[in-house]
Amino acid sequence: MIAIFDSGYGGLTVLKPILELLPQYDYLYLGDNAKAPYGIHSPETVTEFSQKAVDYMKGRGAKLIIFACNTASATALSKIKDDKIIGVIEPSALEASKVTKNGRIGVVATKTTINSAAYEKALKRQNKSLQIYTQACPLLVPFIEEGWHTKPEAISILKKYLMPLKNANIDTLILGCTHYPIMLKSFKKIMGRKVKIVTSGEITAKYLEEFLKANPELEKSLGKNKTRTYFTTDNPEEFKRFTENNLGMKIKTPTKINL
């Protein structure tokens, strides 16, 4: 079984393209909605949350785990140290370094992810000459988790967040939080056609495909019954409703758990 973990709904933007590209495997999704957003917590607290989630998913039979949460990828991944856990930062940084034309890349993410400098480090590993501009967007995840991301107030705040990046003349923008693609149309409208927007979903799906090819023994051990199991630490009915309304994914009502 492959497990996908996020602080809430954001990881669904990673799960969806994974299911489209690699539908044959069994999947578990865990959204720690009760503690969302992770981006307001300290790195130590995020690591504690993430370790509990990893232990739970392994207990459910997960052979491979995807941290579909940038905050967890930025802060907890290096501390948990498990080669069967994949993060979303390195694949996104690699893609951004490939598509930029002027070498000016913007990154929007939670405060914790921005403060970790994880994207700057990952991008510099690809190309030391890149100019990187970052912007923390602490209000976006709460808006998205509450289903308020289409309201005028949310769009107005997004414009304020993006203005410094527009003024920096970036040509590539990394959405460094897996919640943010839920507002992708708004990002595109504000940034304009000339800015390439990099999201984690399809990139991580392709990375997973290559990872499994490179690890045939692990791939053979994975269940291939096309099962999909969902867990949340908050309201299961709201989780189902949000998923169907905002991502167009028909799912069974998740099971509520405590972590």
Observed structural traits:
2 domains; 49% helix; Rossmann fold; globular; alpha/beta; six-stranded parallel beta sheet; 259 residues; single chain
Low-confidence stretches: none
CATH architecture of the largest domain: 3-Layer(aba) Sandwich
CATH domain fold name of the largest domain:
Rossmann fold
Strand order in space, largest sheet: 4-3-1-2-9-10
CATH C-level name of the largest domain:
Alpha Beta
Helix content: 40-55%
Tally of discrete structural domains = 2
Shape category = globular
Tally of individual helices: 13
Major beta sheet summary: 6 strands, parallel
In short:
With 259 residues, this protein is an alpha/beta fold.
Description:
By secondary structure, this protein is of the alpha/beta class. The protein folds into two domains: 2-87 and 202-256, Rossmann fold; 89-199, Rossmann fold. The chain is built from 13 helices and ten strands. The chain has helices at residues 12-21, 43-59, 70-75, 77-80, 89-99, 111-116, 118-126, 140-145, 152-167, 184-191, 200-214, 216-221, 236-247, and strands at 2-6, 27-31, 64-67, 85-86, 104-109, 131-136, 172-175, 196-198, 228-232, 255-256. It has a six-stranded parallel beta sheet with strand order 4-3-1-2-9-10, sandwiched between helices. The chain has a four-stranded parallel beta sheet with strand order 6-5-7-8, with helices on both faces. The chain is globular.
